[in-house]
Amino acid sequence: MEVEYRDTTGVYYPAKVTRIDGNQVRLSFVNSALPEGLYAISECRVLKPASGNAAPRNFEVGDIVDALVRQSNKKSAYQRAEVKDIRKDLLVIECIEGPLKGDVISAGECRPAGQTTSFSFKSTVIELSSEFVEHSEEVCQAVMEAIPKSLAQVDISGKNIQVFAPDTKSINRLNVIVDTLLSQVKQKASLRQKQEDIAKRLEESTVRNKVVIEFTVCADLMGLAIGAGGANIKAARDIEGVVNVILDEKDDYHTFKVIADSEEAAEAARGLLEFITDCVKVPADMVGKIIGKSGRTIQEIVDKSGVIRVQIGESVHDELGNELTEIDFLFTGTQEAIELAEMLIELHIKHVREMESIRKSINDTQQRLTLASEHPGGYYNNRSYDNSNNGRSAGRVNRFRGHSGGSAGNARWSPAETDTNSSNVTSPPIGTVSDASSVAHTDNFAPPPPRGPVPAPHSNGHAKLPPTNGSISGASERTNGNSSDGRPPPNRGGRGGRGGGRGGRSRGGRGGYLGPAAAV
Predict the structure, then answer these.
(1) Residue-level pLDDT at 439
(2) Which of 270, 339, 405, 458 has the fewest C-beta atoms lying within 10 Å of its C-beta?
(3) Same domain, yes or no: 228 and 324
(4) Ranges for the K Homology domain (predicted)?
């Protein structure tokens, strides 16, 4: 049922009646010119029934017409106007009701004035039995299809159908065909139920022999999953081996059900439809390397993997204020794309670690090379070895222990063991001093004179030493260096003076033997 509603400016907007409640009608306007809602019946008008023999009329200058004129709200409404000029199929008009203005419109958008009348209708009620209550909507649709320009609606009780028609003739026709309409609705409902049962059994039979996988997608990502104009779903259904893709929409999550001949085909369809947001953890010291200069590295990862977007966690501390060792990278895309992005990140981190290790090795080697060039001797003493000085280098002052000027190194020296210039030197008896001239020194070092007065020579040619508080035996007990049993004294020589390596100073030994002295 179509009407024209007059607004406050005096123009009429075309609309469709969806329900009648007392003195008001619910209208749905063409092109949404006005909001859908309840409006007064008194402000509505309808076209008069057209005569079957009415011939199309040609417009002339001065005719009064109802023209469909574009209004200030960019919507079109009928407005009373006068024809001022005719140019082929175009009419130059001037509005005489509502907003006054002139316009040029097509002749097809005009009709002669006086072809409308106020909105009025006739009504009747169809009572439904219990078997038709659940099919009431189908009955209403059948009535409106059978009776032109009529409106059928279920009343508040849900058991009756109210029918509104423009005239009594339409109501009479409805009374004649109502039983037929109800019978047809019943037959159609029975066939539809049978069709649904067969389709359900067919689906169950198909599913038993097919591979079925189900997965959910967050409502925020459904736009990506469906694709522009349902492109992704269509592509999934076109995969060879995919029987059907069913979408069950809910509030927060939507469930996809893929039916396929093989698991491979089902997983291929899933790869096109399943969009998720997943986290990839990156070591904190590698975040800058993964992002790269001006974001080039992360952009390359996004492009190669096929993920939709990536978000990088901004927080570097946890809730307790501790510094995080890993930063979250949130990738949005298909499961396969996110796994590929994670692989690229791990590959890049491994490469950076290896490069850092190589650079560190190069730096260490370079430092060693620099030190070697600054100190040619390296970490070794600059010594030369030959047989001229018993293996000691002339570059270092030799230190010897034992006889003054000797070359025995750290060995303890005993006069009885030394044979110099092919002359045997015998150890003098303890408590005597032998003739120093009988002892030869390799470095011609002259021993210093004895401290204190020189003791008078003994009858045997040796100087007699004063007693030494028992630390050294007397001459009567040890004569000519032999002990009381006739054996030579043990080699108890103390450490000799340090020889010419330190300027020729000779330091007296420790122990019973004082070493050779200068000749008296």
Answers:
(1) 39
(2) 458
(3) no
(4) 209-277, 280-350
Closest CA to 492 of 513, 462, 478, 518: 513
**Residue 253 sits in the same domain as residue 351:** no
The reply to whether 91 and 13 lie within a common domain is yes
pLDDT at residue number 393: 43
pLDDT at 431: 42
Show Cβ contacts of residue 380 under 8 Å, excluding neighbours closer than 6 positions. Answer: none
Query: Residue 40: its pLDDT value, please?
Result: 93
Q: How many angstroms separate the first and last alpha carbons of the chain?
A: 160
Identity at 497, one-letter amino acid code: G
Please write the tens of the pLDDT for every residue from 75-105.
999 999 999 998 888 999 999 988 888 889 8
Structure-block tokens of residue 175: 């009374």
Please tell me the predicted confidence (pLDDT) of residue 449: 55
Question: Which CATH number goes with the domain that contains 221?
Answer: 3.30.1370.10
pTM of the complete model: 0.42
Among 101, 118, 135, the domain boundary falls at 118
At 404 the pLDDT is 42
Same domain, 332 and 284: yes
Cα–Cα dist 518/447, whole Å = 7
Inside any domain, residue 414: no
Q: Are residues 110 and 130 in the same domain?
A: no
Domains in the chain: how many in total? 4
Place of tokens 């209004």: 71
> How confident is the model at residue 80, as a pLDDT?
93
Is 492 part of any domain?
Answer: no
Helix (H) or strand (E) holding 202: helix 168-208
- What CA–CA distance (Å, rounded) separates 83 from 61? 5
Separation CA 203–CA 428 (nearest Å): 128
Q: Which pLDDT score is estimated for 133?
A: 87
Q: What is the pLDDT of residue 472?
A: 38
Do 290 and 219 belong to one domain? no
pLDDT recorded at residue 451: 55
| 93 lies in the same domain as 14 | yes
Q: Which of 180, 204, 228 is a domain's end point?
A: 204
Residue 129's contacts (CB-CB under 8 Å, 6 or more residues apart) are: none
**Is the CB of residue 152 less than 8 Å from the CB of residue 165?**
no
Question: Domain range holding 85?
Answer: 2-49+58-118
Task: Count H helices and E strands in the chain, helices first.
Answer: 9, 22
Instruction: Give me the residues of the chain with pLDDT under 50, please.
Output: 380-445, 459, 461, 463-465, 468-484, 492-520
- Which of these, 502, 500, 503, 498, lies nearest to 515 by C-alpha position? 498
**Residue 7: which of 64, 72, 90, 89 has the closest Cα?**
72
Contact between 29 and 52 (Cβ < 8 Å): no
Q: What is the predicted pLDDT for the residue at 478?
A: 42
> Among all chains, which residue has been given the structure tokens 């986290």?
279
pLDDT at 128: 87
Question: 411: how many CB neighbours lie within 10 A of its CB?
Answer: 15
